[in-house]
Design goal:
This protein is of the alpha/beta class. The chain has 18 helices and ten strands.
Length: 448
């Protein structure tokens, strides 16, 4: 049994009449990663933590739902089910949260900074304009008028720094500004969106479930919320990936590991949260630990997107129908989850497919618009494939998931110039009511 990357799996709803059940395990992970050995080889990984494993913290308050305006397709009314762990026992969240849940966080102004903007802030001591931005952010956070949350991408990319002094310097700034407030990963947000649109558009008359809202579940505290997992940034697999060896399938975390993590979470001074973000004062390179699996997963995504780019260059018909092609790919990515939530709510997902086939691509675009995270992915991928000069990179996998999670549900997002242009030129910023900036210097005015 091994620990690797970040959580995989999918959060699924449970029937309201099912009794609440507790998963095996309860508490901790000691300070050094070598203490996390359980039943064989262990690998700590920073990569891939963009999928769902288990229930999340349910914060109070929140922004109104941002699914955006939609065409006048058939709708019906209200109510949804909570999310639970896919392979561990299911918990109806309204009957009590599992012990790994984070403290609930109320909703101030949400300011999301891309990783490169955090690095710019770190250097702000030598640049007076940015020093003013940092001071404005600190004042807004200390007054409670703004929060600067971390995402799974920040945890992943911070551990990519092998120089521990550089890594710890960046992590200290992130800790001080964020107070370890976090947003959920892309795949969990997508699950909430899918359940919501199934209940709003395809429920049966007998279904009285409440429609879940991302805004009610957006802000939590800690790495477990950021990765939507009781094991934080770690995940348990049967085999760690190595040269010529593929990663093995995921397995449920053993009880002694969950106990260790709960014990670590109880340590003073947020020791578990600090270790999850900053790591230990070394290179984080250990035998039997895959620390930077996100690089491997990013290279796999790079190969797929590069192959599509080559096809587009050679096939004018495919270039002409690029939107339809990417639209179909994104809907297929969501296909299994749509069927799963449809099954749990007895929804007629067959009617969804039939309507799509009858009405064509425009209905497919409508369906995708009901999933804001994947709708953002669609436009981001389309922008890169429309511009052959904008080459795909290994880190694009992380960027796609992080920005697709942040833009629909934050109030302000500061990211690199090209991505900011995509969100503004497509109107996604206005659709979601989010200010998307490319310069930190523009942020100070918004915080006054």
């Amino acid at each position: 049994m091994c620990l690797s990357a970040a959580p995989t799996g999918a959060g699924f709803p449970s029937r309201r009449h099912r009794p609440a059940r507790r998963a095996a395990g309860g508490t901790g992970l000691a300070g050094h990663p070598r203490a996390a050995r359980v039943e064989g080889r262990v690998a700590l990984a920073a990569g891939g933590a963009l999928r769902v494993v288990g229930p999340e913290a349910l914060p109070a308050g929140g922004k109104a739902s941002r699914t955006g305006a939609a065409p006048d397709w058939p709708r019906s009314g209200s109510r949804g089910l909570p999310f639970v762990q896919a392979k561990l026992p299911r918990y109806p969240l309204e009957k009590g949260s599992p012990t790994w849940h984070c403290r609930q966080v109320s909703r101030p102004l949400v300011v999301y900074l891309d990783q490169n903007k955090w690095v710019e802030l770190l250097r702000s001591g030598q640049e007076q304009p940015l020093a003013g931005v940092l001071a404005s952010l600190r004042n807004a956070v200390s007054s409670g008028s703004a929060v600067v949350p971390l995402s799974a991408a920040h945890y992943l990319e911070t551990w990519h720094r092998t120089n521990w002094k550089s890594r710890h310097g960046l992590a200290k700034l992130m800790r001080d500004l964020s107070n370890f407030v976090t947003i959920p990963p892309f795949h969990h947000l997508q699950c909430i969106e899918i359940e919501a649109f199934i209940l709003e558009h395809f429920r049966t008359p007998k279904c009285k479930c409440e429609v879940p809202q991302v805004s009610d579940r957006l802000l939590g505290r800690g790495v477990n919320h950021a990765f939507h997992s009781p094991t934080g940034r770690m995940r348990v697999v049967t085999q760690v990936a190595a040269e010529g060896v593929e990663e093995g399938p995921p397995v449920a975390p053993p009880a002694n590991l969950l106990d260790a993590i709960e014990a670590a979470r109880a340590l003073p001074d947020d020791a578990y949260e600090w270790w999850s973000l900053a790591g230990t004062p070394d290179s984080l390179e250990y035998p039997d630990f895959e620390v930077r699996a996100e690089h491997r997963l990013g290279l796999e995504r790079l190969k797929r997107e590069t192959a599509l780019a080559k096809r587009l260059a050679a096939d004018s018909k495919l270039r002409h129908r690029l939107d339809d092609y990417i639209l179909a790919e994104e809907l297929l990515e969501a296909h299994d989850r749509i069927n799963h939530f449809g099954f749990w709510h007895n929804a007629d997902t067959g009617r969804l497919i039939d309507t799509w086939q009858t009405k064509g691509p425009e209905y497919g675009r409508f369906l995708l618009s009901l999933m804001p995270t994947r709708y953002c992915i669609f436009y981001m991928r389309r922008a890169k494939h429309r511009n052959p000069q904008w080459a795909w990179q290994q880190h694009d996998r992380t960027d796609l998931a992080a920005l697709a999670s942040a833009v629909p549900y934050s109030d302000v997002v500061v990211t690199e110039r090209q991505w900011a242009h995509v969100f503004r030129s497509t109107g996604l910023d206005k659709r979601f009511g989010t200010r998307v900036l490319s310069r930190l210097s523009d942020l100070a005015e918004l915080l006054r």
